[in-house]
Design brief:
The chain is mostly helical. Among the domains are: 92 residues, no CATH class; 42 residues, no CATH class. The protein starts with a helix and ends with a helix. The mean pLDDT is 81.
């Protein structure tokens, strides 16, 4: 139920008077106070009630508007904070998704680099095998060539040695008569061919 401002003012003054009764009671219990002191206390209490009532009467709308304005500011501040929180959560989710996506891309790039590394390694190993086979073939060809060369040189030396040995054997075994017979035979062959 709502009261008018007048009713609020009167109820306030009555409340102040009721609250001041213990003061009167304490004042009265001390004793030795005359009527003028009673009147002074009552007058001061009444004046205080009127001043407080007037202050409430005049300042109540401003106080009420201050607190309602303050309430509105707090409400707006809370709504703004809730909106900022929602926006921050939204940005957090977006950044989190971007980070997850970037992490997946990094993982993909890492796997791709790893796969390329394996392919490159296999290529290098295959190239090394080919080079090794080529080097082996070249070495084999050189060995065969050197063997052929050495074999030819050995044959040549063997022929020379054989001729020398044959000459020495012939020198030892052929007599002058054998020598003359060979010359005649050779001359006969040459003459018969011409």
């Amino acid at each position: 139920m709502r009261f008018s401002r007048k009713q609020d003012f009167l109820s306030l003054i009555l409340s102040l008077l009721v609250l001041s009764l213990p003061v009167f009671t304490a004042f009265a219990s001390e004793g030795g106070h005359d009527a003028s002191q009673w009147k002074g206390l009552a007058f001061k209490t009444f004046n205080a009630a009127i001043i407080i009532g007037a202050l409430v009467w005049f300042l109540a709308p401003k106080i009420k508007s201050f607190f309602s304005g303050r309430r509105q500011e707090i409400k707006e501040s809370l709504e703004s904070a809730a909106m900022q929180k929602a926006e921050a959560e939204k940005q957090y989710r977006e950044y989190s998704e971007k980070i997850d996506k970037a992490s997946q891309e990094i993982d993909g790039i890492f796997e791709m680099i790893k796969a390329q590394g394996v392919v490159e390694k296999e290529k290098i190993v295959e190239d090394a095998r080919k080079v090794a086979v080529k080097m082996k073939e070249d070495a084999q060809a050189r060995i065969e060539q050197e063997l052929s060369k050495a074999s030819a040189q050995l044959r040549s030396e063997a022929v020379i040695l054989s001729v020398q040995m044959a000459q020495e054997i012939l020198k030892k075994n052929i007599t002058t008569q054998d020598h003359e017979a060979m010359i005649r035979e050779y001359v006969d062959k040459v003459v018969s061919k011409n």
